[in-house]
Amino acid sequence: MSRTSLPAPETAPGHARVPVRPALAAGSGAEMPSLRLVRLAVHGAFYVLLAIAAGPALAGTAPVAVLPPAAVLAAVHGLGIVRSARRPGPWLAAVTALWLLLLALDHGFSYVAFPLFFLFLHAMPVRWAHPAVAAATAAVVAAQAGAPGGLTAAKVIGPVAGAVVAILTGYGYAALYRESRKRQQLIDDLLHTRDELAAAQREAGRLAERQRLAREIHDTLAQGLSSIVLLARAAETASPEAARARMREAGRTAADNLAEARRFVRALTPPALEEAPLPEALRRVTERTVPGAVFRLDGDPCALPMETEVALLRLTQEALANVARHAHAERTAVTIAFLDGQVTLDVYDDGIGFTPGDGPADGRRTFGLHGMRERIAALGGTLTVESAPGEGTVIAAAVPVGPGSRPRDAAEPDPAPLRRSATAAQSGGAGPAAGTKGAAA
């Protein structure tokens, strides 16, 4: 309870509170400014009316005998404001008794009854509050009857009207209080929902980042380390000259992995795409990962969003790494085609193939194809895997290209050499590559 609030009303089992109680209840974060103003106005009105009633005595025109009980009443009422009380009955009884004493000494204290009506309505059960207001009204009428001029209709109507106004005002502000509480509840629910949504978004972002890093590590560092292991094993059984070539290749692979690791820290573009456009980067990856593989470029290359280029590069790296490790293929072909509204990428090999959906025989969990599908699906594209034991494998991806894509500028590398090198190298390889292009489309 705040220091400017009335004592908390006593709770009696089975006794409902009069609806005006919330208007004078302790201030809280949910309280409307108008309700707080009403509560302060009731306290202020009590002291103002008490001072007006005691004014004649202070001026010497009325008996000074009313001053001591008036001072005591002011102190007791102020004590109830400052100190909270779970059972305000004794405090309210003391305030009422002192007021009745003053009313008996001077009928001018009749005006103090109006703020007392709100005290009764706030601090007492309904079945007691209304009779208390009626009794206080009767006391005021009786005091006015003993005043000069006797009892008149105005002296009866005035106190009764004041009591009715007090009750109706209390009901009105009780409705405002209920509306305020309802509005505050809605605000609290919205804030709670907002916090839950923010937490869910943070969690979704954290999981998405974990998946992104898992794909990046699998498609770069893990594949590079696997290549280094294969090169090291090949060097063990090769001639000295071939072993040195294998070790040099392992060194280049390790350097590339180091660059990728540093890129993770800086969150920048993959080094292969920093050094060359996408077709050239794919050609280099093809030649380096599977020596003798054919690379083919169809259509006029256009600038793609960086996330699209990264996804196609990673897909090629993963697919070729699988060919190098598992396929035992004689021919491998990589084809990228820039078509109207989409770009397609096919990776074909004539190796041992596999049954799509079957995991490794040793029961290990794999991430390759799952990561490929996630990358392409995130771009709104599709990924198709066609394979069967002994019949080779085709991995075909198609990614939509937005209207913002544009042909490469004249300053950018001319892709014609790529086509010429692919044509020269594809003896026997163009057919499978073309077939995979059709599968992607």
TrEMBL record:
Pfam families: HATPase_c, HisKA_3. Keywords: Coiled coil, Kinase, Membrane, Transferase, Transmembrane, Transmembrane helix, Two-component regulatory system. GO terms for molecular function: kinase activity. Residues 307-403 form the Histidine kinase/HSP90-like ATPase domain. Gene3D superfamilies: 1.20.5.1930, Histidine kinase-like ATPase, C-terminal domain. Residues 398-441 are annotated as: Disordered. Residues 183-210 form a coiled coil. The keyword Metal-binding does not apply. Residues 418-441 have a biased composition (Low complexity). PANTHER family: NITRATE/NITRITE SENSOR PROTEIN NARX-RELATED (PTHR24421), SENSORY TRANSDUCTION HISTIDINE KINASE (PTHR24421:SF62). This is Sensor histidine kinase.
